[in-house]
Design goal:
The chain is α+β, with helices and mostly antiparallel strands. It folds into three domains: about 260 residues, Thrombin, subunit H; about 90 residues, Pdz3 Domain (Roll), CATH 2.30.42; about 100 residues, PDZ domain (Pdz3 Domain, Roll). About 15% of the residues lie in helices and about 40% in strands. It contains eleven helices and 29 strands. Strands 23, 24, 25, 26, 27, 28 and 29 form a seven-stranded antiparallel beta sheet that branches. Strands 9-10-11-14-13-12 form a six-stranded antiparallel barrel.
Length: about 475
């Protein structure tokens, strides 16, 4: 038990950083990557963004109770302040006219974007499309010059053990080349459409959005995240978005300025060994339908809660994680055959797919809030806002819920198990009522010398859990 507690308290930081790194087949160890790096360097760019952020903090080691006359007297000391912040990332050219691919989290909420080449030439850029779900964005350089693009490779052909090289802007050191191998494929680190390539090529803060090349000089991944216990630096476990699914999203962003994903309208869960036994399935497989959205494509097609989807549009659904990817990659409006397990029998249903981006689900998840409501909690490297009555109604949270919604997470955050849109409802077993109260309470706890925070959080599926966070 003691070892388990130590493990839980061990701060494991998953850092988003744009990182496609994957490699094509190579049967011999190269003598040098110099020729390849020299050829590719002109297609890789450094990205810097500027944004205005609001910060609120309590200068006192205590807080005044609501309604106290001292609260009004000293409120001027607790006013939000604004400051400019600059963030760094990477990207790569995909069109000679100056289209750049990067991670969405690199340019999220940016007011100004500057793209810098290896020869120190700088250009302003604008966003032409972004996708928060796969964490991709396409920029356009504001220039009439012609640029040297990189080409996408076939990430499906990349094999575990293949050599790869990553080029990017780690910690602001532009034009950095690192090498390694593909350590694994199809990795899931918690995102809806995760299907990452894992690599041991060094990837660090600032590599986000940069390319992962194979030895043919083709982009097989976009570097996006690393696992880094405590140090915020590379320990050889990096993740890149594979080029094949990424290029489909990128094509849509270029053509439409947004994505057009298929939508079924169901909430799913894993088929466990126990569920498979009860349902008389040969083995645990498929996606169990927990609920069906009213008037959704699934509802209109006759799919019900309790059904287990085993096949979608002719493709097997091996696990729960497979279904969202298959649905998202299917053309909107297409009539598909869905094979489901119901009452211990295999039956088929025909469903006409809707568009995810037009659904109420998507509008709720991507709802933009008034910037004035977003508050930076500098000590935790996150932004939050007050939980509203609309949030409670839309997410179907308990009516008496109070707390704060996490709106942005910076790469250096110690909150490993917290995601954007999570709701923090308790801190050190004390109920959270507002962003201001959370900030004051956090300062009070830190000023008392606390080394560990104890939070209660609702995730995006309304599952409540407790999380411990090491501060030192």
């Amino acid at each position: 038990m003691e070892n388990y507690k130590k493990f839980i308290n061990f701060t494991l930081v998953i850092i988003l950083l744009i990182f496609p790194t994957s490699l094509s087949q190579s049967k011999t160890i190269p003598n040098s990557f110099a020729d390849l790096a020299e050829k590719l360097m002109s297609s890789v760019v450094n990205i810097s963004t500027t944004q205005t952020i609001k910060t609120t903090s309590n200068p006192f080691p205590f807080q005044f109770p609501p309604g106290s006359p001292f609260e009004d007297m000293f409120k001027e000391f607790n006013k939000p302040t604004e400051r400019k912040a600059t963030y760094l990332g990477s990207g790569f050219i995909i069109d000679k006219k100056g289209l750049v691919v990067t991670n969405n989290h690199v340019i999220q909420e940016a007011e100004d974007i500057v793209v810098t080449f290896n020869d120190k030439t700088e250009y302003k850029a604008k966003v032409i499309g972004k996708d928060p779900y796969m964490d991709l964005a396409v920029l356009e350089i504001e220039s009439k010059e012609k640029f040297i693009p990189a080409s996408f490779g076939d990430s499906d052909k990349a094999r575990v053990g293949d050599w790869v090289i990553a080029i990017g802007n780690p910690f602001g050191f532009g034009g950095t080349v690192t090498s390694g191998i593909i350590s694994s494929k199809n990795r899931d680190i918690g995102g809806r459409y995760d299907d990452f390539i894992q690599t041991d090529a060094s990837i660090n803060l600032g590599n986000s959005g940069g390319p992962l090349f194979d030895l043919n000089g083709k982009v097989i991944g976009i570097n996006t995240a690393i696992i880094s216990p405590g140090s915020n630096g590379s320990i050889g476990i990096g993740f890149a978005i594979p080029s094949n699914p990424a290029s489909k999203v990128i094509d849509q962003l270029i053509k439409y300025g947004e994505t057009k994903r298929g939508w079924l309208g169901v909430r799913i869960q894993m088929v466990t060994k126990e569920i498979a036994e009860v349902e008389k399935l040969e083995k645990p497989a498929g996606a169990l339908i927990a609920s069906v959205a009213e008037k959704s494509p699934a509802d209109k097609g006759g799919i019900k809660a309790g059904d287990i989807i085993l096949e979608f549009d002719g493709k097997k659904v091996d696990t729960m994680r497979t279904l969202p990817k298959l649905v998202a990659q299917t053309e909107v409006g297409k009539k598909v055959v869905v094979k489901i397990w119901r009452n211990q029998k295999l039956i088929s249903k025909k469903v006409i797919l809707g568009r995810l981006e037009s659904s109420e689900q998507y509008k709720t998840e991507t709802k933009e809030e008034d910037d004035s409501k977003h508050v930076e909690i500098e000590k935790l490297k996150i932004f939050i806002r007050d939980l509203t009555k609309d949030d409670i109604d839309e997410r179907k949270l308990p009516k008496n819920t109070t707390g704060v919604v996490v709106t942005k997470i910076l790469e250096e955050t110690p909150l490993m198990f917290v995601s954007v849109n999570d709701v923090i409802v308790e801190l050190q077993k004390k109920k959270i009522t507002s962003s201001r109260q959370f900030s004051n309470l956090l300062n009070e706890i830190i000023n008392k010398g606390a080394e560990t925070l104890y939070l209660a959080v609702y995730n995006s599926n309304n599952q409540r859990s407790y999380i411990t966070v090491k501060l030192k």
